[in-house]
Hints:
The structure is a homodimer.
Chain A: H1 18-27, E1 29-33, E2 38-40, E3 48-54, E4 56-62, E5 68-75, H2 81-88, E6 96-99, E7 103-109, H3 110-119, H4 121-147, H5 150-162, E8 167-168, H6 172-179, H7 183-195, E9 199-202, E10 205-208, H8 211-218
Helix pairs in contact in A: 1-3, 3-4, 5-8, 6-7
The structure holds a DNA duplex.
Amino acid sequence: MTAPDWISAFPGLKTLEPSVAGPLIETSKVVRLPAGTKIFGPGQAPEAYLMLVEGTVRVQQVSDTGREIVLYRVSAGESCALTTACLMGYEEYQAEGIAETDVEAVAIPRGTFDDLIARSAAFRKFVFTAFSIRITNLFRVIEEIAFSRMDVRLAQKLVELGGVSGHIDLTHQQLAAELGTAREVISRLLNEFQRRGWITTSRGAIDLARPEALRQLAAAP
Amino acid sequence: MTAPDWISAFPGLKTLEPSVAGPLIETSKVVRLPAGTKIFGPGQAPEAYLMLVEGTVRVQQVSDTGREIVLYRVSAGESCALTTACLMGYEEYQAEGIAETDVEAVAIPRGTFDDLIARSAAFRKFVFTAFSIRITNLFRVIEEIAFSRMDVRLAQKLVELGGVSGHIDLTHQQLAAELGTAREVISRLLNEFQRRGWITTSRGAIDLARPEALRQLAAAP
DNA sequence: CAGCCTCTGTGACTAGGTCACAGACCACTC
DNA sequence: GAGTGGTCTGTGACCTAGTCACAGAGGCTG
């Protein structure tokens, strides 16, 4: 059996020993999920360790008042550490994972996962790295929520999302969910940015007119 | 070599195979740190995997304006997952770990750690569990910071700290650090609780007069 | 007792979250 | 082209939380 092409999507797995890659390839299945699928969440847990080949998964929390906050995204080439924690089932948690795009993932059954962890240093490193990165990331999220001003966080987010084109296709509500705040707050801040000539807004979209001004605010102490 | 008494402090390690427990015991060192020691933090990383035999370690973040927030505590019988993430060094993070009491810990050198992970399912489970619990915990912290009212969070914390005696030896400043808010906010809320007859306060201490009332507020939606 | 440090209380102000509601924009149908 | 319903945005009023400045109170030490 030759390695299917998905394995090349994971830089961390290139160095897998053949005796290890064999079972991995044989027992794991490629699954496809349409955009919008709730992959895990309260009352819905996966039965396998998932590694993303294609697409992105958004992990978020929802409050009982309906406010949302995006904790992080898992993108192609990464494993979903949360699924692992979920798999182990040591404690309940109520975040949810949602396919943002059509998603292609490799599902590794629990038995194979345990076996690979036991036998392959490369695979262990791959899994542990994912865990570490997640924890690090959550630390940053906590720091921002707890200590950063909302205008600074919004400016950061706009710069991040604007990319090269400076065009962002998101509603105020979606931006609010990214930052864990209310839609009205985003609307007011965007108005202020627009008043200063930093952005232009239209229904469901934002264009960055002066990204460098946003960047400067984003870097504020 | 017989097992030293520290190993009995870790329920997760009782079932270790002798061939695994041997190297663990031989190469690891018991270290003692006085209360207040900064175990890790910006510019100070540990060189070994740490498991706490005695005492507690507080992991917290400090903002540039001086506000603090306690993320979690590691207590006796637990391993410091953060140290692991730190060890792996895949990314920087700037939380700090501080010995709250005098601490006795077992330091496992990196090589032994890797070896144990490779050879012992029990040890792997021990380490992964610590990771999972931490991630779960951080999720809860984020949810509370992002979505919960401060009076509810304070009531929860008071009930949690009050224990059976209902007596708490903390200053307003220390409570503020627990919850990641400002001292004045705590002072005002405590005044309000006292006005309602739920608590009595004195310099550096709080007594719960009606814990059930606090519990009810803490359980608020 | 005086001096000093820590802890607590308070008013004024700003930022952020909630609520209610009014328009504006868009797609679709008739 | 007019009507209709759904989504998106704007706004005022109000409340909670965080910041700043400063005043006392409590407790310890020389």
